[in-house]
Amino acid sequence: MRHALLVLLAALLLAACARHAPAPDGSAQAVPPPRPDGRLPRQVHPTRYALDLVVDPAQPHFSGRARIDVTVDEPTSAIVLNARGLTVRAAALIAGGARVPAATSTRLAAGSKKDPEELVLAFDRAIAPGPAQIEIDYDGTFADGLRGLYRVQEDGRWYAFTQFEPTDARRAFPCFDEPGWKTPFTVAIAVPPDMVAVANMPEVRRAQDGARVRFQFAASPPLPTYLVALAVGAFDTRDGLAGKLPIRLIATSGKARLGGGALAAARGQLVELERYFGRPYPYAKLDLLAVPSFGAGAMENAGLITFREERLLLDEHAALAARVGMNGIIAHEIAHQWFGDLVTMAWWNDLWLNEAFASFLADEIVDAWRPATAARLQALAAKSAVMADDALATARRIRQPVRSTSDALEAFDPVTYAKGRAVLAMAEAWLGPDAFRAGLRGYLQRHEWGSATADDLYAALGEASGGRDVAGVMGSFTDQIGVPIVDAKIDCTGQAPAVRLHQQEYRTLERPTGSTALWRIPVCVVTGRQPAGPLARQCTVLTDRDATMALDTSAGCPRFVYANAGETGYYRVRVGAAELAAIGAGITQLPERERFGVVSNAWAAVGSGQLTVTAFLDLLLRLENDRSRLVWTEMLAALYAIDRALITDADRPAFARFVRALCGPTARRLGWRSAETQSDDERFLREEILVALGDLGDDPGTLAEAGRRARGWLAAPSAEGMDLARIAVPLAAKHGDAALFDRLLAVVKQPPTPEIRVLAVNALGSFDDRAMIERTLALVLDGTIKTQDLRYLFPSIGLRPAARDVVHPWIERHFDELARLFPSFIAWRLVRVVPALCDADRVRAAEAFLRPRAAKLEGLEINLRQSVEEGLRCAALAGAARADAARWLRRRL
Predict the structure, then answer these.
(1) Which of 231, 320, 523, 836 could form a disulfide with 804 if both were Cys (CB 3.0 to 4.6 A apart)?
(2) Is the pLDDT of residue 3 over 60?
(3) In the annotation, is 594 catalytic?
(4) Are strands 572-573 and 484-491 parallel, antiparallel or unpaired?
């Protein structure tokens, strides 16, 4: 037996050597090995695709023929492309008038954790350079996990949808599945006679094909594989025009009636986007497709944008937050049609060129179209939140190397979206809106229908701004992790007043000091005799550790400085005890953005040990009558963080009294009255304040009113309205009983609208009662709560103090089962409950359990590393500040 095994091993080694050895004539490598950077070998590149598919969602399988025109760049006897979970029936290469059959095999790509992702076509001769065509007949199984080409059953009908970003086109057809390879696509789809097919381009022909109907679509402009899309089913549509552009709302049967608001938003935003870019929408049509089971929020497929149905389908009773959210996500996805689709990143390390720009432009466009939204202002809250992520040692760079499918999945995180958006906003403020927009227009014109890198963007912005060092400034933020903190001190000892600036890396309590990181920071300071008086603004680019900025002498020596005017910069400002003393009572007279900045940076100073938590709590009391939603959003975010990290069960009643004292005046001013009498900002603030008052403050009056209104809403949802229901229903669940749970469960099973379903799921995750928490978790395992809706439960349910000791053990008991049930883009949410443990020993124990499991799943490892670090950060803060917070609460109240 041992001899036989040795013989077999020798044969396998010889075969492997033969596969990787030069061809007999020395002209071509037989089978190029997987590249360590995750890309395909470069012997050939695609120039055009023709896909002919047979798709019946009622069946478990689909089939297709892929014809891929390629150019062979160097002699080769093997071609490697991507395929995952497909069965090849036949494959051949047509070149020089000859048809060369291919032997096929699959293999793991570099960094693969699960299935083979590379398809090898091996030929019995070397293929000469020049044009050729690959032809592959294949079968596929509809994919699990809401990715690739997958199917959904809705109200007894079957539908098929696609989600290919980042690397799942290979689950639907063999392809060169990389963003830098953009080619035209021609698609035909044969479907059952009671269904229709839609794709990226307009339908040009529909004909009977035996027992099926074959839909032929126009050839597309050059697209990367991840932007190809199709859907099949008995769809309901609303047709319209945006100027001369055909625009449609497509939904599953009977739901298109809810899409009027989405169509109106898309029409209005197209006008603003075309004006901003100075060029028309790039594609022949625009379809907005509402998908009932969808893993992402939306996807920018060229000409066929897919959305979660709850983001798109709203009735006349929809909450303001839902309508504003719909406007924002539509603007984001349509902006992608230029940034991402017309010009695509060359590789996934520059994903931010898509996502950060779409987020930045969505704010710009929504504000131009609906100024009351104040999207650019509210984006500051997201900047503050992502700075906490970016201050982790385990943070990823905006331009992080991507070497595998798992790496590509990990790139879709707040650093890419929110940090990228904030850095772009800083660049716009530094260069000026006109120069910035001119640079973007030049970038699009230079790279239209192709691919580009961040360096290409920097060059265009530098040219448009008269040669400024855009690459140096932007690169210092995109190519390294971390958040700079700027210390500004007034110096009037010389002949003229000045501000002395110092930069270093912001660090939290659990991390050692000693960073040598430097940034090139556009810094704008405001100075004045006092915060309540006139403020002067001056700017510079801080390139060294220290610098001195001379001030205008006409106003004399200022007594106050704040080093991030308008909060346009992506950096922290040191706000310690001395800085708060200098601001004094004048903080209430500072502009809104600066008041927000003081609160945000003061809480960051608590996290770094530069400010006591008691000084921060005193600061909050000085702002109890503030009327800014932005300022309150930051204050409330800090209160929730304090609740998780610093408040023990023994101190929770005292903390609740503090929250009631702090939030009470604003809650009484806004109340539960009709939203029609309030501005958009007041309506948003009312929701945030009342929810905090009931949840953190455990306010009896608020909870009683919430219970009354929740019962009324459950009896007649349209009568109460969704604005008030968003407040009342989760608060009613906080101390709710089994009867309320059952009523919410009934809504989840048969919701009148998608928005109502989401509210009911959120409410099921808001119970404090242990038995109700366990019942909610059971609904995850039995499938009652849709896979896509887990994002509305996790990690939020695990971060609630009343639930965390139930949720984390449940995740450990069922982790292997959950990992089988849910794709990695959802499973990562499970590990994000670890920070709630807020105890070093418990966090390390959770890490020991989760690490070997996360290592086997795509996209989970970085989430686990960051969750562990966040848990240790919480534990360090608790150790440093919990006792002080308890003493302050007991003394104050």
Answers:
(1) 836
(2) no
(3) no
(4) parallel
